[in-house]
Amino acid sequence: MNTVVDLSNDFAVGSTQGGKYVVERSTRAGIATMVFFAVSLGFSVSMPFWADASYLRWLSELACYFVMAQMWNLLGGYGGLVSIGQQAYIGIGGYALIVLANMAGINPFFAVLLCGVVAALIAMPISQVVFRLPGGAFAIGTWAVAEILRLLVANTTELGGGSGASLVALKGFDRSAREAITFWISISASYGSVLLVYFLLRSRFGLALTAIRDSEVASQSQGIDVKRTKFLVYAISAFGFGVAGALYFLGALRISPDAAFGVSWSPLIIFMVIIGGVGTIEGPLFGAVLFFVLSKIFEDYGTWYLTALGLLAIVVTIWFPKGVWGYIANRFDLHLFPVQRRLRLRDNS
Amino acid sequence: MSQLLSTHGLKAWYGDFQALFGIDFEIRPQEIVAIIGANGAGKSTFLKAITGVLSADAESVRFKGQPIGGRRPHRVVADGIAMVPEGRRLFPSLSVEENLRMGAYTKRPGPWTLEKIYGLFPVLKEKRKAPGTALSGGQQQMVAIGRALMSNPELLICDEISLGLAPAVIKEIYVALAEIARNGLTAIVVEQDVYTAQRVSQRLYCFQEGRVSLRGNSSDLTHEQISHAYFGV
Amino acid sequence: MTVWIDAIIQGVLVGGLYALFAMGLSLMFGIMRLVNVAHGDVVILMSFIGLMAVEKLGLQPFTAMAVVVPVALCIGYALQRGILNFTISKDPLPSLIVTFGISIVIQNLLLEFFSADTRAINSGGLESQSIAISDNLAAGVLPLIVFGSAVLLTIGLQWLFGNTSMGRAFRATSDDHGAAALMGINNAHIYALATAIAIGILGIAGIFHGMRTTFAPTDGPAQLIYAFEAVIIGGLGSFWGTLAGGVLLGIAQSIGARLDPGWGVLVGHVMFVAVLLFKPNGFFPKTR
C-alpha cells in the first residue's frame, strides 16, 4: 500500500534480472486451465460414443448458453454496450438456418457458421440505428429492434408467419448421427467463443476496448477509433449470437418468432453473466453452468424461480459487482484466463 | 473558540492515492486567508475535503467548534460554508436569476437577497433572464459568487476565481470581494497568482505536494520565501 | 378520406396514453440519465393495483386514482432511495441490470398472484360512450379524458419545472449534480422525488390503461417500448415534446393498423427508426 513504484524503469527492464517487480501475463492457474481445456475437449469429443442421448442434448443446450453468455459479456462487460436485445441475433441465426437449409438446400451443419455471418452482416445497418442512442437508451433501442424483427418475421408467410417453421432439411439424417454432429458443433462453438474472446482481449483490439470502457474521450485522444472498435465488438457479438441461435434451433428442430426473438432470452443470458461475473471470461462460463443446474432443479417453480433470479441479479449488481466468480477469484487470487498484465513482486527479492 | 474553521492533521485520498498528508489550517472570523500552490499541490483537494466532496475524519475538520469532517456536501452548505467552484460551474439550463436563486436553496437566513446581489453586480440585473452560460467569463464569475452569497454563508470559499479572466476583470472581481469582506465576511481564497493572493489576503498558506510548506501574514512574507515554498527549490 | 381522419383522431387520442407512459421515463432519464427498464411493468403493476382498488374496495375508477397515486408516489420514492440510488454512476450497466431485475420480479410476482389471464378495469359504461364530431366521425369519451389528462399533466410538469424551487433543483441537478450539491441539494432526495413523480404519473396511466384495454402480467415490455419510442421521437427538450412524441407514435400506429391489421405496431416502430436515422435528437431536442 502506498509504496511508490517507478514503473517506467521496470517496464523497460521487463522480466530481466534487474527490477524488483516483474510484469507477467501467464499464471500458474492459466497453464492449468490450458491442460484442463485440452483434456475436457478430448473427453467431450468422445462423448457421443458412450454417453446417453439426453446428456448430449443437455450439453448441446449448455454449450449454446456458453456462447451466448460469452458474447454478451464481450459486448456489455468489455465493450460497455449493454444490450437487452441480443435475441435479435439469436432469431436471425435461427431463421437464417431455416432459409439456408430448408430453402437454399445447404447442409444444415455447414450452414451454422454462415448463420453467424448473416447475423454479423445484418448487425451493420442495425448498428447505424442503435448507436445513435445515448448511454442506457441503447439497451432499450436494441430491444425495440428485436421486437421489430419479431413482427417482421411473424408477418412474413414465407417464413411460416406467427406459427413458425420446422427444420425439414434434417429429415434425411439418422437421429443419433444428427445429435452427435449437433453436439460436436456446439462443443466446438463454445470452445471457439472462449478462445475468440481470449485472443481478442490479448490483442491490440482488447487494449483499445478496455481503454474505451475506462474513458471514451481519453482513448479518442490517444488515437483509438472509438466508433470502429465499438462497431467491431457489436458485429462480433452478433456473429456469436447468430451461431448460437442457429445451433439452438438445430437442436430444437422447430422455430417460431416468439421463441426466436422473444425477450425471455435476455434475462437468462444477462443474469448468467452478471451473477457469474461480468467483465471476466470465467464469470459467464461459471454463470451459465450455475444457471443450467438451477434451472433443471427448479424447473417446476417457474415464476418463483425467475423472481428469485431477478432479486439475485439486483443483489449481485449492487453488493457483488464482480459476481460470484469475481468474489472467488479475489478470495483465492485465481486467474484462469490471464488477459491482463499483472505486476508482481519478485519472489526472491 | 477563536477560529471559525480549522483543520487538524487533515488527510485525504483518491482511492489508494493519498493527496493530503496532515494539513493544519485555521481561519478566524472576518479574515481573508489565501491558499497558493502549484498545480497538484492539493489546494482543490483541501477544499473538497472541507466541503464534504471527499471523505475525511470527522474530528479533522472543525467548523464553529463542531466536527464536520466527512459530512455530506449539502449538509455543509446548510451549516454555512459556501463554495465558488473552480470553473464556475453555472447551471446551463437555468437563467442568471435562477442560478442565483439556486444559491438560496437552503433558505439560510441572512443579509443577502437578490436585490443585494444586483446592487453589488448591476450588470447581472440587466441580464437576469439570459441563460447563465450566455454571459462573458467575468459576468459568469459574478453569478457564481452571487450564487454562493445567496446561501448567506459564514465562510465563503473561492476556488481559482481569476482563472481565465482578463486582468481588468480580475481586479473588478476582487474589488467586489473586498467590499463584501468589509461587511464582515470570512473567506478562503485559492489562487495561482501569488501577487493577487498576497494583496487580497491577511494571511497566506502555501501548499506543496499535499503539505503546508509555508504560512504567515501575507504582508510579512518575502518573495524568496514564497517562491521557495511554492516550487520547493 | 373520413377513414384517415378517423385514424388520425384515434391515433392522437391513444398517443395521449403513450405520453402518460413516456413522461416519467423522460423525467428520470433527463435528471439522472437513468433508463428504467421496469417502467412498462410498473404501468401494468399500477393497472393491477387499480383493479384491486376497484374490485376489492368497491371504488369508482377515478376515485381509485386518489388511492393509487399516493401509493405510487411512495413506491417511487422508496424504490429510488432504497435501491436505484446505489446504481447511479457513469456506467449505465448497474442501473440497467437492476431495473431489468425489477422488471422480471414484477412480471413474475404478478403472474404468481394474478395468473396469466387478461383483466380489465370496469369503467362503468364509460368506454362505450362517444361524442359525435360529424356524421361519420366520433371520439370516445374515455380516450378524450385520457388525452385531456395528458395535456393537463404536461402543463403541470412544465410549470413545476419552470416555476418552482423543486423544478429548478431538478434542472440544476440534471445539469451538474456536483455543483447542485454545493448549493445544498441532497441529490439522493431530489432523485427520489423525480422517481416518485415518474411512478406517481404511472398511477394515473396504469388505471387509464386498464380502463381502455385489457391487460396481463407480461404486457409491460410492450408499454416500455412505446414509452421509449415516444421519448425518442419527441426529443428530450420539454414535456411538450414528449406529448408530441406520444401523439406522433399513436398516429403512426393507427394509420398502420388501417393499412393492415398486423402492421399497426410495426409502422410505429418504423417511425421510431426513421426518426433515429434522420432526426436523432427527436423533434423537440434540448437546446443549450
From TrEMBL, chain B:
<keyword id="KW-0067">ATP-binding</keyword>
<protein>
    <submittedName>
        <fullName>ATP-binding cassette domain-containing protein</fullName>
    </submittedName>
</protein>
<dbReference type="Pfam" id="PF00005">
    <property type="entry name" value="ABC_tran"/>
</dbReference>
<feature type="domain" description="ABC transporter">
    <location>
        <begin position="5"/>
        <end position="233"/>
    </location>
</feature>
<dbReference type="InterPro" id="IPR052156">
    <property type="entry name" value="BCAA_Transport_ATP-bd_LivF"/>
</dbReference>
<dbReference type="InterPro" id="IPR027417">
    <property type="entry name" value="P-loop_NTPase"/>
</dbReference>
<comment type="similarity">
    <text>Belongs to the ABC transporter superfamily.</text>
</comment>
<dbReference type="InterPro" id="IPR003593">
    <property type="entry name" value="AAA+_ATPase"/>
</dbReference>
<keyword id="KW-1003">Cell membrane</keyword>
<dbReference type="InterPro" id="IPR003439">
    <property type="entry name" value="ABC_transporter-like_ATP-bd"/>
</dbReference>
<keyword id="KW-0547">Nucleotide-binding</keyword>
<dbReference type="GO" id="GO:0005524">
    <property type="term" value="F:ATP binding"/>
</dbReference>
<dbReference type="InterPro" id="IPR017871">
    <property type="entry name" value="ABC_transporter-like_CS"/>
</dbReference>
<keyword id="KW-0813">Transport</keyword>
<keyword id="KW-0029">Amino-acid transport</keyword>
<keyword id="KW-0472">Membrane</keyword>
Automatic annotation (TrEMBL), chain C:
<feature type="transmembrane region" description="Helical">
    <location>
        <begin position="61"/>
        <end position="80"/>
    </location>
</feature>
<dbReference type="InterPro" id="IPR052157">
    <property type="entry name" value="BCAA_transport_permease"/>
</dbReference>
<keyword id="KW-0472">Membrane</keyword>
<dbReference type="InterPro" id="IPR001851">
    <property type="entry name" value="ABC_transp_permease"/>
</dbReference>
<dbReference type="Pfam" id="PF02653">
    <property type="entry name" value="BPD_transp_2"/>
</dbReference>
<keyword id="KW-0812">Transmembrane</keyword>
<keyword id="KW-0029">Amino-acid transport</keyword>
<feature type="transmembrane region" description="Helical">
    <location>
        <begin position="137"/>
        <end position="161"/>
    </location>
</feature>
<keyword id="KW-0813">Transport</keyword>
<feature type="transmembrane region" description="Helical">
    <location>
        <begin position="190"/>
        <end position="211"/>
    </location>
</feature>
<protein>
    <submittedName>
        <fullName>Branched-chain amino acid ABC transporter permease</fullName>
    </submittedName>
</protein>
<feature type="transmembrane region" description="Helical">
    <location>
        <begin position="12"/>
        <end position="31"/>
    </location>
</feature>
<feature type="transmembrane region" description="Helical">
    <location>
        <begin position="261"/>
        <end position="278"/>
    </location>
</feature>
<feature type="transmembrane region" description="Helical">
    <location>
        <begin position="223"/>
        <end position="249"/>
    </location>
</feature>
<comment type="similarity">
    <text>Belongs to the binding-protein-dependent transport system permease family. LivHM subfamily.</text>
</comment>
<keyword id="KW-1133">Transmembrane helix</keyword>
<keyword id="KW-1003">Cell membrane</keyword>
<feature type="transmembrane region" description="Helical">
    <location>
        <begin position="92"/>
        <end position="116"/>
    </location>
</feature>
